[in-house]
Fold these 3 entries.
Entry 1:
Amino acid sequence: MGVGDVAKRVLLGRKLRSSQLGETLLPKRIALPVFASDALSSVAYAPDEVFIMLSLAGASAYVWSWKIGIAVALVMAAVVASYRQTVHAYPSGGGDYEVATVNLGATAGTTVASALLVDYVLTVAVSISSGAQYAASAIEVLRGHEATFATILVVVLMAINLRGIRESGTFFAIPTYAFMAATLGMCAFGLLRLAGGSLPQVESAELDIEKAPGFEGSLTTFALMFLLARAFSSGCAALTGVEAISNGVPAFRRPKSKNAATTLFMLGAIAITMMLSIIVLAKQMGLRYVDPHDLDRLTQNGEPLPDGYDQHPVIAQIARAVFNDFTPGFLFVVTVTGIILVLAANTAFNGFPVLGSILAQDGYAPRALGSRGDRLAYSNGIVFLALMAIILIQVFNAETTRLIQLYIVGVFVSFNLSQLGMIRHWTRRLKSEKDAGERARMYRSRVINTVGLTFTAVVLVIVLITKFLAGAWITILAMIVFFAIMRAIRRHYDNVSLELAADEEDKIMPTRVHAIVLVSKLHKPTLRALAFAKATRPNVLEGVYVAVDAGSTDRLLQEWDDRNLGVPLKVLFSPYREVVKPIIDYATQIRKANPRGVVAVYIPEYVVGRWWEQLLHNQTALRLKGRLLFTPGVMVTSVPYQLRSSELARDREEREQGRVRAGDVRRGRVDRTSSDHQVQR
Amino acid sequence: MGVGDVAKRVLLGRKLRSSQLGETLLPKRIALPVFASDALSSVAYAPDEVFIMLSLAGASAYVWSWKIGIAVALVMAAVVASYRQTVHAYPSGGGDYEVATVNLGATAGTTVASALLVDYVLTVAVSISSGAQYAASAIEVLRGHEATFATILVVVLMAINLRGIRESGTFFAIPTYAFMAATLGMCAFGLLRLAGGSLPQVESAELDIEKAPGFEGSLTTFALMFLLARAFSSGCAALTGVEAISNGVPAFRRPKSKNAATTLFMLGAIAITMMLSIIVLAKQMGLRYVDPHDLDRLTQNGEPLPDGYDQHPVIAQIARAVFNDFTPGFLFVVTVTGIILVLAANTAFNGFPVLGSILAQDGYAPRALGSRGDRLAYSNGIVFLALMAIILIQVFNAETTRLIQLYIVGVFVSFNLSQLGMIRHWTRRLKSEKDAGERARMYRSRVINTVGLTFTAVVLVIVLITKFLAGAWITILAMIVFFAIMRAIRRHYDNVSLELAADEEDKIMPTRVHAIVLVSKLHKPTLRALAFAKATRPNVLEGVYVAVDAGSTDRLLQEWDDRNLGVPLKVLFSPYREVVKPIIDYATQIRKANPRGVVAVYIPEYVVGRWWEQLLHNQTALRLKGRLLFTPGVMVTSVPYQLRSSELARDREEREQGRVRAGDVRRGRVDRTSSDHQVQR
C-alpha cells in the first residue's frame, strides 16, 4: 500500500466489496437504466444544438427544427434496428470492436477502438459540461464557473470509480426512471396544453434573433442546405450512447440477446419520443436560442440585452414555462436532468476499463489490463480518462456547443465500420446457410444493416464536411494517435513473440546448480533461506556475505561457525560499502567457470505490512534482484519471511481482491466465492 | 529506467563517471577549498548581521562592532582548537555525531544528528539567499526578485547533484582561492589606505540611522547588554561550517589527522582575519546598515530616503568604495562572493547523503541509505534537502537576516554536545593511559575542549535567549521531529531484530519441495523456467496454467503434449479472467496438504531494456510475486529471459553504477576498477 493508497483511503473511506454486488444478472427493467443513461441524456443537449445552428439564419429558420428532428429520429431508428442485429449475432459484449475486427480485419478493429477511446473521453467532457450548465441554470452562484464546477464533478466521479462503485440496481434505476418520468411527463403535459391551446411561451420567446454575419438577406439554396446539414449533424449528438447495450449483452438475463434487443428497442422508442417532443414544444413555445458566444445577437425590441442575461438550456426553459413558474416542477426536471448527465459520464468510466481489457486480450494494450484485478493498470485508466476529460473541459470552458463539434465523428466512425462489418457478417453466413427460413432472416438482417450503413454513412460525410474545421480534426488526430500507439504495442508483442518462439534446444537442462544464499545477518530469514536452498539439493551451496566493515564480519563469521550450519560462507570484500556489484560480479564469475550450469541466488526477504516498513526493508534486495535478472544463467529466488505486521497487508490484499471494479456489471460479472476456480487435472 | 529518468537525462545530459574523479586523496591545498567554502562564506553575511543588530540603538552603537568581532573571533579560535582535537581523536569522519554517540550515548548522538540535518537545510537556504542578495547588488533586474532567483539557484544545484558532480580539485579551488584573494586583497588595500589616511567612505556613510522603537534615549545597562548579546549571537553565524573538516578526515592525504588539523588551523586564521578586517573597514568607512524591513529608519539630512533605495551587503559596499568605484574590482569581489556562497550551499548537498549513510548504518535511517549506490534513496535525500530549503526561502522571502535567526541554534547544539563528548573522551582515555607524555597531551587536549565547551555553551545560552522567539523555535521543533523519526526507525529495526532472532528450530529443512512453473505460453522463457526448475530436482514438478478462455487452453494443452516435456500441466480455471488468485489458492492448497514441505513457484520473466517495455511485460508476474510472498511456506523464483533489448538496460546500469555521487570525495572514495572487491574464501 503506497502513500497514494493511504491518501485514497483517507479521502474515500472503506471500499465496496464485490459481495455487495448483488447476485443476479440484470432483468430488462434494471438493464434499461444501467445502459440507457448515456443515450437518453443526449436529449439534454442535442435539441439545443439544433436550435443554435438554425438560429444563424434567424428565428425564422426554426421552421426547420422539427423536420430535422424527424431526420435524426429516422437515423436513430435505423441505428437501433441495426444494433438489434448486432446483439443477436455477437452476444459476447465485444460490440463494434468485435464486429469490425472479425468481419473487416484488425485495422478496422483498431480504428473502431480508437474511435471508442476518444468517445469515452468526450462522453465525460460533454455530459459533465452539459450537467454543469443545468446546475448553473438552477443555482445562481455557479454561473460563470461552469468549467470549475465541471472539473470538480469529474474529479468526484474519478474518485468514486477509483474506490469502486456498484453500477447496478437502484443506483441507476431511480434517477434514470425519474428522468424519464420527468421529461416524458413534462412533454405530455406540454403537448396537452398545446392541444388545449393554453401552451405558454418560454422566457426567451419575447426576444429577437439577429441573423449571423453571412446569413443576412435570403439564403441561396446551397447555403440553406449547408445550414440544415450542420443543424442535422449537431442533432445527431442524440445518437451517442445507443451502442452501449451492444457492449453489455453478457450482463442481461437469459435469453440475453433477445432481452438486449428488446431493451434496445425500448431505449430507441423513448429517446425518439423525448427528442421530438422537446423540439416540437420548444418551437411552439417560441424558444430563441443562440450560441452562448453570440448572446449579443439576441435583442429585445431592437435593443441589445443587458450584460447579465443568462441563456438557460432548452429543457430548463420549457420546464419553467410549462409548469407556469411552479418552481418545484422546474427544479425536479432540472435536477434529474443534471443527475442523468452525470450518470452518462459514469458509464464512460465503466466502459473504458472493459474496452481496455478487450484490447489487452488482443495485444493492443498492455497485457496487464487484460486480467481483472490489476489495480494499478485499472486505476491508471480511470485517472487517464478523467485527466483527458478535464483538459477538454478546461480548454473549451465547459461549453457543450464547442465540445459537440468533436463528439459525433468518433461515434459515427464506429457506427459505420460496425454496420459494414455486419453486412459482411451476413454475407458470409449466407454462403454456408442452407435453411430457407434462416436465410430469409439473414437477408432481412442484411437489409436492415445496409439501411443502417447508408444512413450512418451519410451522417458521417455530413459531419466531416460541416464539423472538420470546427473541431472534428482534434478527434481525428487523437484517433490517429491512439491507433498508432495500439499498433505499436501489438507490433512489440509480435516481435517479442517471435523472439521467444521455442525451439528444441530450449529443453536442455542445466548440468549443475550452484546455489548461493545471501547473508546479511544470521537471523530467521537467513536460516529459512538456507534451509529452503538446502532442500533443493543443489550441487554447490554456500552463503555469501558482503563485508563492509571488519567488526560485523568477524562477528558474523564467529556466529556462523558456532551454529554449525554445514554450509560454507564466502565473504566478498567491499571497501566502498557497495553491496550489489560484488554479488553480481561473483555470480557472473561462477557462471563463467561453468557456462552450462545455473546460478541460483536465494535472497531472504522480509515481508512487512505497512507502506513505511517497506521503505525500511528489502530496498537492497529489490535492487539486487533487478540487477541479477540481467545476468544470464542466473535465477533469483525470494525466500519470504513474514513478519507479524505482514498480516495487515494480507488482509488488505484480500479486501482489495474482493473489491468492485467499474465495468464489472456490464461484463456480467456477479458475486462469487473463492471456491469458484475449480482445480482440474 | 523510469519516465523520471528520461526527463532527467534530457534535462541534464550524460552523467559523470567516477573514473573522472581523479585518482588521489586530497592534498591540503585542495582540501582547504573543498571544505572551507561553507565556513569562509559566512563572512559574506555575519558582519552584516552584527551591524544590523547594533543599528537598533543608532549608528553610535557601531563603536561596539569591532569588540563584538573580537568576541566572535575568540569563540572561533576556541572552536577551531577544539576540532583540532577531534580530528586527531576521531579520524574516521564521523564528526560530531560519532563523538557524541561514542562518549555520550545514542540520545546525544541522535540529537546531534537532528541538529546537523536541520543545519544542512539552513546552510542551503541562508547561503543561497545571501548569494541572491549579492547577485542583486550587481545585477539591477534581480532586485525585488531575490526569492525567485534563490529558488532557481537551489533547483539548479539540486539538478547538478542529482546528476552527480565531482566535488574536488579546480572546481572548488579556483573560486575559493579567488574569493580569498579578492576579500583579503580588498581588506589589505583598504587597511593600507586607512593607514595612509586616504580611506574613502562607503555609499551609506552619509546617511543617519534613527533608533528603533524602544531604543530611544540612552539605554539601561541591561538593555545594552541584551543588544550586544543579540549582535554577538548573530555574529556567531561566522562559525557555521567550521566543523566540516572533522567530517572529511578520510579524504585527506596521509597523515590524515595531522593534515586535517593543519587545514583547520589555516581555515580558522583566514576566517578570523577576513571577518575582523571587514568589520573594522566597515566601521571606519562609515557604514550605515539596518534591517531591510526597517529601511525607513535610514535618513539623509533628516529626510527619509527615496522609495527605491537599495541597501547593498557590507562587502559589496566596501568593495565599491575601496576601489573608488572601479567597477571591475567591485564586480570581481561581488561575483566571487556570490560563487562561494553557492559552493557553500553545495557542501550541504554533499554532506547530507554522507550523514544519511552514517545514520543508516546505525539504524536511524532507512538501511538502504547505508550502502552506496542506492540511487533512489540517495536522490530522494537530495530532493528533500532542496525542497525544504526552497520552502524556507519562500517563507522568509530569501531574507538572510530572518533565516539567520533559525541557523545558529542547530550549529551550537552540535558544537556543545561534541565538546562535552570530547571532554568525556579524554577523561576516559586518561583512566587507562600510563605514559606521562601522552597523559600531558591528553590533559592539554581536555583543557582545550573545556575552554571550547565553555565558550560554545555561553553562545548557545545567548542564542537561545535572544533568538528563540525570533525563529530558533522553528529549528528546535524541526530537530524534535527529526529526532522522533530517527528514534522510531531505530525502534522498528530493533523490534524486527528481536522478532527475527534465530533459534534452533530455524535450521529444520523442509521435507519435500513441490515445484510449480507458471505457464502463460509455451515459449523460450517458459521452457527455460521448466529446465531450471527440473535442474533443482524437486519432489514434484508441474506446470500450472490459468485458463481464461477455452480456445487458448486447448491450443496450449495440444502443444504441451506435442512437445513431450515430461512434466504434467495443471490447468486452473478462472472464469473471470483473474490470474493471481487461482495461483495463490493453489499454492496454499499444496502447502496445506503438506505443511512441512515447501512450495517453489517458478515464474518465467521477460527482461527488457526500455521503460515502456517494462509497462508491457511482467506486470502480472510482479503482482503475483508480491502476493505469493505473503503465503507462508512458499518461495518464489524468477527465471529471467533476457530479450535483446535488455542489453540497453545492462549498459545503462553499468554506467549508472560508475557514476559520481555527491559526498564521494569527502568520504575519501577514489577511483576503482571492478576488480577491487577481492573474493576470499
Entry 2:
Amino acid sequence: MSDTVDERIARVTFTADGLVAAIIQQWDTHEVLMLGWMDAEALRRTLTEGRVTFWSRSRQEYWRKGDTSGNIQLVRGARLDCDGDAVLVQVEQVGPACHTGTRTCFDADDLDAVRGPEAVA
Amino acid sequence: MSDTVDERIARVTFTADGLVAAIIQQWDTHEVLMLGWMDAEALRRTLTEGRVTFWSRSRQEYWRKGDTSGNIQLVRGARLDCDGDAVLVQVEQVGPACHTGTRTCFDADDLDAVRGPEAVA
C-alpha cells in the first residue's frame, strides 16, 4: 500500500479519550490473547516497530508489551474494522500473554453462558 | 458453576459509560468477527438467551445481532479477561458478521504493519 502511516492512522476513530481498542491475536492459531488500548502514538509505534505498544490507562504511560516481562508480541499484521474503532493485531506471542502467567488473558474466568441452538443450514 | 448470572456480571468492570468491550469470535475457526459493546443488561441477555445482544452506542438501543439482517450469532461460550474489562464471546456466526457483507468486520482495511522479527526460541 502506498498510503503513509499518518494516512492510515487518520482512518481510525479514536474515543473522546483518544484511544482505540486493540484486540491481540496469535497469528497462526487465531487465539485471542488480550485486549489493550492504544492512542495514536502507541498505534504508530506498533505499526512501525514490529512490536506491540499499548497506552496503559491505569499507569497513564506507554507500555511496550514484554519490555519488563520478556513476553513480547512480535507483529505479523494489523487490520482496522469497518467503522474504524477497533484494531486487530496479529502477533507471535513469546511466552504467556497474561500477567497472571496464563497463555491468554481470557483463560481464567468462564462466564458460563447458555449455549444457543444449533444453526439451521 | 454455581454462581448466578448476577454474580458473574458483578465481576465485570464497566466503563464510566456502563459498557464493556465484547470481542466476538467464531468458536471453531477462532476468526475474530467483530468488536461490540455491551452494558450489563446486554451481557445478561447474551449469557442467558444463547444469542448475542449489544448496546448500540450510535443508536442508544439494544441490538440483538441478526434480528434485522438474519446474520445471527449463536453463543457457544463467553469468558471474562483477567482484569474484568473485556469479554470474549465465542459464537456460531450465521452468514457474514459485517454489515458490509464481508465475513468479518476486519476484512477490508489492512493497516500495513511492519512485520517484527522472528521469535528466538
Entry 3:
Amino acid sequence: MVIVMSPQATASDLATIVALVETAGGEAFVSRGMSRTVVGLVGDLDQFGTLNLGAMRGVAQVVRISVPYKLISRQSHPDRSIVRVGGVSIGPGTTTLIAGPCAVETPQQTLRAAQMARAAGATLLRGGAFKPRTSPYAFQGLGEAGLKILADVRGETGLPVVTEVVDAHDVELVASYADMLQIGTRNAQNFALLQAVGDAGKPVMLKRGMSGTIEEWLMAAEYVAQRGNLDIVLCERGIRTFETATRNTLDIAAVPIVQRLSHLPVIVDPSHSGGRRDLVLPLTRAALAVGADGVIIDVHPDPTTALCDGPQALVHEDMEELGAVMRGKSLWQGQVLDGFVPSQ
Amino acid sequence: MVIVMSPQATASDLATIVALVETAGGEAFVSRGMSRTVVGLVGDLDQFGTLNLGAMRGVAQVVRISVPYKLISRQSHPDRSIVRVGGVSIGPGTTTLIAGPCAVETPQQTLRAAQMARAAGATLLRGGAFKPRTSPYAFQGLGEAGLKILADVRGETGLPVVTEVVDAHDVELVASYADMLQIGTRNAQNFALLQAVGDAGKPVMLKRGMSGTIEEWLMAAEYVAQRGNLDIVLCERGIRTFETATRNTLDIAAVPIVQRLSHLPVIVDPSHSGGRRDLVLPLTRAALAVGADGVIIDVHPDPTTALCDGPQALVHEDMEELGAVMRGKSLWQGQVLDGFVPSQ
Amino acid sequence: MVIVMSPQATASDLATIVALVETAGGEAFVSRGMSRTVVGLVGDLDQFGTLNLGAMRGVAQVVRISVPYKLISRQSHPDRSIVRVGGVSIGPGTTTLIAGPCAVETPQQTLRAAQMARAAGATLLRGGAFKPRTSPYAFQGLGEAGLKILADVRGETGLPVVTEVVDAHDVELVASYADMLQIGTRNAQNFALLQAVGDAGKPVMLKRGMSGTIEEWLMAAEYVAQRGNLDIVLCERGIRTFETATRNTLDIAAVPIVQRLSHLPVIVDPSHSGGRRDLVLPLTRAALAVGADGVIIDVHPDPTTALCDGPQALVHEDMEELGAVMRGKSLWQGQVLDGFVPSQ
Amino acid sequence: MVIVMSPQATASDLATIVALVETAGGEAFVSRGMSRTVVGLVGDLDQFGTLNLGAMRGVAQVVRISVPYKLISRQSHPDRSIVRVGGVSIGPGTTTLIAGPCAVETPQQTLRAAQMARAAGATLLRGGAFKPRTSPYAFQGLGEAGLKILADVRGETGLPVVTEVVDAHDVELVASYADMLQIGTRNAQNFALLQAVGDAGKPVMLKRGMSGTIEEWLMAAEYVAQRGNLDIVLCERGIRTFETATRNTLDIAAVPIVQRLSHLPVIVDPSHSGGRRDLVLPLTRAALAVGADGVIIDVHPDPTTALCDGPQALVHEDMEELGAVMRGKSLWQGQVLDGFVPSQ
C-alpha cells in the first residue's frame, strides 16, 4: 500500500500517519518528492485496511498494491485447475460444451433439447428450473418439478446437470438434484448465496455480474472458496454498456485476463451475451480461439414456443455446425453467415 | 405492441404472425409501408409476450408499448404516495433526512452518530448491522447484536430505524427490530429477497441497482408491491459509469423521471454516490432542489476509526450546515467549499 | 510516480529501473514490502513519462501521482476565475443564464428566441450556425448566414453571442462574428480544433466529451490554455451511460469536483443532458443548488417546427418560471411538475 | 415510423398528428389499442423527421423503423465489398494483417518495425505521423517528416502505407504520401474531417468512436460515402466501459453485427483495445475466428524506447507466432500464454 499526501499536508499530518502505521505493527517509508510526499507501507494489508487511512487529514490518495483475493489466485496456485462435474472435466486440456434449454418447460422439450445438445458434443446439460425474471409477472420456472425433469433427462442421456439456484434457502434442494450449481449474473454479489453454495459440496458455476468488474467477479469466487469449495468455474456472459445492438457486450478479453489472475477455469456464454441466434456461433468461435475452457449455450427444439429468451436459442439445424466448431473443424470463419436474417 | 417485419419477410411469414395473434385472442392491424410492413397488435400484452414473436421468421423488431409495471405506476395511482415509517412520513409535503453510521460498530459510536443525526434534523436513523462487503475478508457487520444496538439507540433518541437485510432468511429477524427494511444495490435483482420483504409487513427502502436501469428498478418495486406491500421508498444512489473520479455517478435526473412514472417517494443517497465527504452537502442541495423526497446520509463521530466507508462520512462539524440545508436555509450555493482538501 | 514491481521481478530488473531513473536525472527510493517491492520516483514527471517504465521487465504497475494539467489547475491558480464574454461575467459571484435556439433557422425565430431568453434573465445568447449532425442527411446549419443572423439579433437585443465552431478552418470566420466560441461534445478531443480556438483570442466554452472523463476534459482545456487563452468556461452536458431513459446522464457531481480541481468556471447544460423539456427546470435547479456558475438552455418560440432537438426546448410558457429559478426565487422544489406529459 | 400516443392524448391531438402527416405527403394508419393508440406512418422518412412529431401534444413515443444509412448498407449493396489499398485487398476472401509502429519516431525504428511486420505476413504498413495525444505536453508526432519516413520505408519494403490524419486541413498533405487515410477514435464524429477524407480520393480506415454506438459508426461511414468515396474499412478498437482492467473493452460481437448491416470490410485492432502485449495474440485469434477481415497491430523493435503505447506493442519474439496465427496455423488456443507477466 502506498499513501500519497496532498500538497497541503503538514509535517504533523505526516507524523500522525507514520505513528498510526507503526502502532498497527507496520513500517512506513517516507519519500519526499518534488511535488508530493509519498509513504510506502510495509506490513499486514488487512490491518492497514482497518486504519481507514484515506480519511486522515492530509491524505490525497491511497494506492493498494496487492490483489485482494488469495485462494483463487494464480499466485497461490500456479497451475490452472480442472474442475470435475459428474465425472466431466472442465479446464486445461479439454474444451467443454454445456448446452440445453434456457428454461425447463416440459419433459419432452427438455429431453429433446438434451438430445440436441449431446448430438453437438455436449458433455453437460444446462437447464433452468428457477428463472430470475425482471418482471414478477413472467414465468419464474417450474421449481422442484423442473429439477425432477432434469434428473430424469440425465438418466436418459447420461448428461450431468448444471442448474441455477437463486436463493440460499434452496441450495440444499437444488444440490440434491444437480451436479453443478449455477449462480446467475443478478446474484453475482448475493454474498449470502455465495457462502451457501460454498458450503454445499458441489461444483459451482459463477457468472460474472452484468456490471461486475473482473475484480468483483474474482472476489465473489473468493467468497465461495473461503468456505472450502474450490470447484468453481467462471463464466463470462457479457457486460452492460451503452451499446444497445446487443443485450450485453461480450468481454472476450476477460478470458485471457482472468486465466492469468486465477487458476479457475473460464468459460463463455455466447447465448446470453449476444442475445441473438445469429451471433452464437461466431461468438463461440471467438471464445474457443481466445482460449476459453468451454462454452454454455442455449438450445431449444422449438423456440417459437420458448417461455424465455427464444430469440437466442440455437435450433436443430445449428447442431451440426456447433459440433464442428467444438471439434475445431470450423474455427476459421472467413464468411459471413448470410442465411439468417437478424432481428433488429 | 408493434411488430416490424424485415424487408425479406414473405406474405406467408406475415400471415403466420397474424394467425398467431388472432389465435391468442388479439387483433393484428397490418400497415404496409414504403420500406417495411408493420403490424400493430391489440390485445392482452401478457399473452403476446408468451408468443415469442421476436423469434418468428420474418420479424425484424418487436416494440413494446405499455410499461410493464402496474401497481407502482402513476397511471394506476395518480397521486404521489406518502410512506410512513414508525410514525415518520416520507413523501410529498415533507423532506426527510435519514442519517446514521454506515455500519453499527459499537453502542457508543451508534448513539453518538444518532445524536449527530438528530441534531441535524434527522427523523429516521440508518445503520448497518448486516454489511454486504465485496471482500469476504472484510468486516461483515455485527448481525443481530447490531440490530439490538440500533433498537437501544432508538429507545434513547426516539428515531425509528432503517437497516439493510441481505438474505431472505433474515427478513423475519430484521423485521422484528427495524421499522424499515433496506434492500441494497447489490441485491436490487435478488428476487427471492424482494418477495420476502414484500411479505414482511414493514416499509421497504429499495436502492437502485448500481447498473440497474430505471425500468429494472421499478420492476423490482413491482416484485415487492405484488406481495401486497406498497410501502416502498425508492433510493437513487448513483450508477456505475466509466468515470472513476467518484465511486458512482449520481443520476440526479432519475428523481423527477421516476416521480412521473411511479407514485412512490424517491430519495437520494449523496454519501455512497459521490463517495467523498466534500461532495455530500453539494449533492444534498442538488437532491433537494431537484425535488427528492429526502436524503439518506452517512455520519460518523470519528471516521478515522470507521470500519467501512470512512472517507464519505459527515462529521460533527458538518451537522450545522446539514441542518441548514435540510431546512432550506442554505440551498443557494454560490461558493465553492474551499476548506476541505478532497482525497484524490 | 511510483513503480510497483511484480512478484517475479529480479534484482537485476530492479537495478535496471533504478539506473534508468538516475540516468534521466531523477532519484529512486526502493521500499521492499512483504509481498511487493515499490520504487518511489522523485524528479521530472515529463522525463519519467518518456522512459516508458510500464513496458520494462519486472514492472507490474506504474502509478502516477501528480495531475497532468497545470495552467488550468487550482494548484497553479488558487482563486477561481471570472471569464468575461462581451462584457458579461461568468464565474464566482454571478450565476449566468445563456439561452437561445439550438439551431439558427430564420431571423424571426432567432430574434423571438433571443427575446424569450432575455425575458428570463439571460445575459448571453446561444445559437447554432454550424450543427454537428450524426446523419449527413440532417440539417447541418446555415453556416455564415446563421452567424449574420446572430450578429443582427445581438444588435437588436444587446445579448453577446455564443456559437459552436466545428472545424479549425472556420475558427477565424466564427470568431469574427461571435463573442464566445463553443466546442461541442463530439469535438472534445479534436486537438487541432482546440489549438485553433486557443489561438483565436476569444473566450471558449468547452463541452465535456459525452464519454470523456473529467481528466480528459481538463486536458482538453489545457490544450486551449497552452496557446495562451485562459478564458475558458467548462460545460457539463451529461455523459453516456447504459441508461436509455434520457439522452445522457447529467453528472451533477462533476460541478463541485471540477471546481476543486480547476479555477475555470463550470456551467451545466440541462437541455442536452436530459433531452426532455420536463426535465430542464428540475435539472436547472439542481445545477444552481450544486454551485454551477451558470446554465445554458435551449429555448424555441415554436418547437414543433424546430429543425433539431425540438423535444427539449423550453417554450414561452416556461420563461417566467425559468426567470424565477435563475433569481433564486424558485429553488425549493417540493412538488412534481404534473402538467407536462413526458415523451416515452 | 410509428407514433405512440400517450394515454391522455385527446381526439384533437390525434387529428392534428394525422393532418400534419398528410400535409407532408404521407399516410397515417391509426390503430386504437386497449391501452394506447398507435399511428403507423407511410411515406418519406426524411420528411417525417422534420416534422418533429415527438414534440407534439399527446405524443408519448416515436419509433423509427428504417435504418438511417443507405450507401453503406447491405440492403443497398447485398454483396460484401473488397477495398483495395495500394494494390492490396481487404475484404471477403482475404485476411489482412496491417502492422507497424504506433508512432513514427526515427527512420531506423520505422524500417525495423516494417520489416518485423512483413516477416509476420503484413501486407500493409501502419504508422503514426500525427498522433492525437490526450495531453498537450506529450509527443504529437513528427508531422510531414514522419510522412516522408513512411514513404521511404514503403519504398524499401513494398508495403503500402496507412496513416492517421487528424485535421481536415492536413488531408491533402497526408493523401499525397499515404495509400490509406485513417480516422482515429477521437475524431469518429469530426464531421468536417469525415467529409474531407470523403473528398480525398483515397481509401479510408474509420475507427469506431470509443463510445460510439454501432449506428453512429455506420453514420460516420455514411458521411464519407456521401462524398462518393465507398472505399471504407471499418475498424473495431474497443469501447469505453466501467471495466478498468483494460484500456477499452473489445466489442468482438461488433464484427458479425456490422458485417450483416454493411457491405464494408470490418477489421479489429487488438493492440489499442486490450492495451497489453499479452492480450494481442489472443484477441487476434478471436478476431479472425469471429470473421474479421483483418487486424491492425502495433509492433516496435524496442518498446522500452517507444514514445507512445509501448506496453502494448508486439516485439521481435512475437512475430513468428503472429505469422502462424494469420495463416490459420495457430488458431486453436488451448493454452494460456504463461511467459509474459502482465502489467497491473
